[in-house]
Amino acid sequence: MFYAFHATLEDDPDGGFVVTFADVPEAITAGMTREDALVNAREALGLALRGIVQDGRRIPEPRSAGGVLVPVEPDVAAKLALIQAFIAAGISKSELARRLGKTENEARRLLDPDHASKIGPLREALRALGQEIIISTQDAA
Q: Does domain 4-71 have CATH number 3.30.160.250?
């Protein structure tokens, strides 16, 4: 899964910019400058995607084009990928814990979208589910 979505920046009549995402309508934010708006967009997108998984819904596939491509933070992307891989695997949290050699509480924290997890344990859990993190870079918006 690619955890970046195209955003539309529009002038706000009150000043600054409003940022929206056609594929993730829950994510909407603003900023007084273009740079502030894009920083806020990254956070708003991550919060919206975490809310989607908390509601038990599937994260939408990025489909819209145009505008500015906004990625979520890498740790948020890894957390979302883990949650999606866990759901697809159809296993219990106890089974994930067993595969990781960790307690069930540790597995629950890794699967909690609001619990901050380090990239190492997320990578380990993804590998236990047959997934791999791939890093890519591009020019900043």
A: yes
